[in-house]
Amino acid sequence: MTPRVFNTNGVELNLGWARQKYGVEFVDAGNVKKFALTEIRETTGKAIVSILVLNEAGGPQYSHPVAEYWPDPDLQSLVQSGWKTLLQRRALVLKTGANGVVDFAFGAGGVIHDIASGGPFTVWVGSPTLPSDGLARIGWLGGTDHDGMHHLVFRINTPDVVEPEPPPVEPPDDEGPPDTDPELTRWCENVIGLLSGQYDELKAIWQELRAIAQHIGVK
């Protein structure tokens, strides 16, 4: 499932629009139970990336770690974190508040100079039990009042159930009883009639043979 995308006016667009305007890249963790990126909104006027993390019921996920990466060798190492998803080996890790929100501030280093490359930031949710989608190449567009895709919503989801297709129904070898040969049918009827007419005679012969056999001691 791809996230819903909205501009500053609340008009729903798509990932292609966000990619073309800001160079962002959606990172999909797959069709599994995960922290799914469900919504991305364009913002203006604020030099922050705001992340809302929700639980499976849609309530705020309190005190949950969220990671933001940018190219800085002094960032915290996540190699030993035990998280299911490591989109980068280092990141700044902050935890959500009681409302499930955490904000990451950025300055001049977050400017998008080239749409093809996007911005320097990558964001995802940390968890030792569930993987997470992410959004990479986040930044703000130079020459604007910090315009960018800076409001993200993550929610624990249940994967889509893909029902297996039923096996194809093979057609029967034929659509009814086989055709019969008229000549064969007539021959069978004649034989049955002949045997029926000779039944009494054949029965009498059999009884005589049986009597003779008993007379001569053949059992």
Helix/strand layout:
Blueprint lengths: L3 E3 L8 H8 L2 E3 L6 E10 L4 E7 L10 E5 L6 E2 L12 E6 L5 E5 L5 E2 L8 E5 L8 E5 L1 E2 L6 E10 L24 H16 L1 H17 L4
Parallel strand pairs: 1-3, 4-13, 9-12
Antiparallel strand pairs: 2-11, 3-13, 4-8, 5-7, 5-10, 6-7, 10-11
Distance between the termini: 88 Å
Strand portion, in percent?
25-35%
The name CATH uses for the topology of the largest domain is: Immunoglobulin-like
Global morphology? rod-shaped
Helix content: 10-25%
Q: Which whole number gives the mean pLDDT? A: 87
**What is the CATH C-level name of the largest domain?**
Mainly Beta
Number of helices: 3
Low-confidence stretches at least 5 residues in length (pLDDT < 50)?
none
Q: How are strands sequenced across the largest beta sheet?
A: 2-11-10-5-7-6
- Number of beta strands: 13
Order of helices and strands: EHEEEEEEEEEEEEHH
Number of domains: 2
CATH H level of the largest domain: which superfamily? Carboxypeptidase-like, regulatory domain
Helix/sheet category: alpha+beta
Radius of gyration based on Cα positions: 40 Å
CATH architecture of the largest domain: Sandwich
